[in-house]
Amino acid sequence: MPKDSVIGDGQKRREDKRFTTGKGKYTDDIILRHQTYAAFARSEVAHGRIRGIDTSAAESMPGVLAIFTGDDFVEVGGNPAGWLIHSRDGTPMTEPKRPVLAHGKVRHVGDAYAAVIAETPEQARDAAEAIVADIEDLPSIVKMADAVANSDNRVHDEVDSNICFDWGWVEDNRAAVDEAIKNAPHVTTLELVNNRLSPNPMEPRCSIGDYDTGTGDYTLYTTSQNPHLTRLLISAFVMGIPEHKLRVVAPDVGGGFGSKIYHYGEEALVLAASKKLGRPVKWTSSRSEAFLTDAHGRDHVTTIELATEKDGSFIAVRTETMANLGAYLSNFATATPTFLHGTLMAGNYTVPNVYVNVKGVFTNTVPVDAYRGAGRPEATYSLERVIDKCARELGIDPIEIRRRNYIKPDQFPYTTPVALEYDTGNYDAVMDKLEEIADLQGFDARRKESEANGKLRGLGIASYIEACGIAPSNLVGALGGRVGLYDAATVRVNPTGNVAVMVGAHSHGQGHETTFPQIVAERLGIPVENIEIVHGDTARIPFGMGTYGSRSLAVCGSAVVRATEKVIDKAKKIAAFMMESPDGEVEFDDGVFSLKGTNKNVPWGDVVLKAYIPHDFPIEMIEPGLEETAFYDPVNFTYPSGAYACEVEVDPATGKVEVKSFAAADDFGVVINPMIVEGQVHGGLAQGIGQALLEHAVYDADGQFMSASYMDYSMPRADDLPMYRVDHSALTPCTHNPLGVKGCGEAGAIGSPPALVNAVIDAIQHSGRTDVTHIDMPLTPARVWSALHDK
Amino acid sequence: MYNFEFVRPSSVADAVAALADEDAMALGGGQTLLPTMKARLAAPTKLVSLSGIDGLSYVKTGGDSVEIGGATVHADVAAEVADAFPALAALVARIGDPAVRNRGTIGGSVANNDPAACYPAAVLATGGTIVTDKREIAAEDFFQGMFATALEAGEIITAVRFPVPQAAHYEKFAQPASRFPLVGIFVARFASGVRVAVTGASESGVFRWTEAETALSSDFSADVVEGLTPSADGLIGDLHGTPTYRANMIRVMTARAVAAAG
Asked: Which residue of A108, A282, A734, A767 has the smallest Cβ count within 10 Å?
């Protein structure tokens, strides 16, 4: 296959055959000999003191093998936060322990306080229901403002308030920002809520603990986005199982969207139970349990101020945010509302003064952590909404005000006031592309058509920038990260010339099994069919950090490139020997090694064979075999950016919003497989539109989760969504990774909510209701109707 | 789901006998009952399936009425009343999804009387009759509030009979998550007058909007509805809409139903 056709070729996803024909192998498909089943007893109250747990009735029920309560894990470590945040006053954040099973108190509805192991899932569930917990109701802490105001009633008794941290970014900017806003000719202020979401991957979580009594080895099969990280957390923090005695396997995983990055107590429980029983223990989450236990996303309450000149030039941005952390610190929970949020608050713009303040708040709700976009959607939403409001106040076109403030191509690399250095970008070119694909010229005609049908039509624009390719280890270390964020790949050439690539990234919908071979095929000049990707098993892959933060291609893909280059370097040495010129310069092109300046050449297959059958081989100079590993640690984040346009129709009689069209122009850098990229954008847009229009995890004042089923939690469905127009041709290659790629997984979910809300506000304002400047998401019919009719 | 006994009698008499056990429940298509049992929120000791009874699944059209056997699934109703009662066919065609429509039955829906079910609106708006193994019950008497009906323990719906209106339309505004009606309006115009039934909106289940009926009986136009203001008293307030919003939607959807009924 000619190599030029491989990069940029929209090859069909090879993994889809097994996924669409029922041949995927998910964790729940794994059935081990003598397998037993776990079920959990979970709190029905949001906040309560455990006075006693009576397991006697459950113990004598049919099939019951063991029962665990929080008392059994008192000596076990806590599930840690992966990022240490310091408050403005320099004090470290508070880190109350997150136990395997609740001990002393239950802290949210769904908090597990006991677990039953039984011969069948039904027996385990029956016995779990028979456990009687004596729980003293405590007043629930639900609203963040109440949690902050009242330190007497605390989620965690051992810390002195419900505020985990009070973070300023960049604290040194604070005085200058305050001064700039005080003196600015125009200041736009907006208060908004970034609605809480439940991630809802198609596959609920599942874990199997399998302790081998013969070897003392543990295996954990689990729905994880990062098996090595899970192993590290269990080994080093939670259970103390030595890493070399614990294998973590994450087989096919049906989506994660962030929720499967984290280590959960159920994983520790099945391992401990398997050790105790000497039999495998499986737990499979029901959808109801998924709502009550999978880490939620978003849930910010923010006030943002944008100071400008009269001509719309940005002077300063200041935000104050309360970020809900839920009842316990999930692994990335403290990084998400801080360094993945505050650092993006300059957006795509030259704004000289930026200051972000975030309070992380404990409440009696499910823990909140990274969900598709993770902090960056929250930053983008706040900024792009306030820009839109500002443009209306100043009478400037929403595209024009953005263009006026864009960082220009000749200003890169560009260092923002919130401490990121954007390497490259061309925001005007992306906006040009958007104007073209969205047919903005035709909008006025379409609006007239809608109005003739009694509908209000609006157009919403948003730009976004995100920091992806997470992340440079030295940078995250300086910012409080407790792990490195490199990735790793091993390229193993088999004796017959085909290739296995073991990668640290994990594919749970991203299409790595198709994209990664394209990278290797391009470099080795062999067919993609001859390349296999191995992932998701700590026993088979090098130590990698998994998949999240749109990092797989930029970080792990770069490791694949480096490992492939090492293979080629070694193969060249072998080829030089085979061409009887050990010191000669060898070129490698399209699968053929040639000696420069001669007509001598040897094909790939012959060189590989020589490496593995080294009968006639310079064994004193070159090792036999052809297998190389590379670790890649990026020098900077990557910075995908884009411009989105959304058109909506609002029915003023019902408040119903219909998304008529959505156009997304993105700069993802170099695109390896455009079909997969397009699919990633489509999925991201669906989730962003879901957040803006439909999805809402709602708690009542008692901490009951009111939308914890699909009867009330509204997932986007095909008929809620328009046909998309997407483009990623206005690209600037990333300057610092070998592929020039930036990442595309989260973009759609980041840029779409503000575009949609801006469109609805445009529709309403155009109808004459210029007093309606904001509606909080989700823009349900009832909320939109109320905004139109409450005066 | 807890363990239960399952029987599938072949006659109404056997079904009635089987239902005499305490905690036995009749099973139509199971589209509400089975998910409830799977969530362990219902625990009948015995399920008596009505799907094996001969002659309980049929659609009879002709004259001024349509009669549907109690065990007839929605998909069959949608197909078979398309000509005789198109407004009813359109209502049925939008219940749930294809899986629900191929399992769920009219008897099960009407007996459950979910305050947001579609069928009760058609039954009440047409002045239909519920036929059981014991008696015939007028729609007015049958629906007695949220999940409450005139059915006695062990009584089985064998058929539902609808007078066919001169003109009719069902207008459903879907709750975004469940896609049950947030407000559903069935408007039926007869020579004797207009009837309007509202589902999805009230804490008391399906009800007639008599103010609109009176106005529409003298002037069958959307405009006349626009001038009315339904009361928000007793309407449902939840995550998806306040009583005030639902009151607005009753007016808006009724006007649209009238316009569509023509």
From this structure: A767
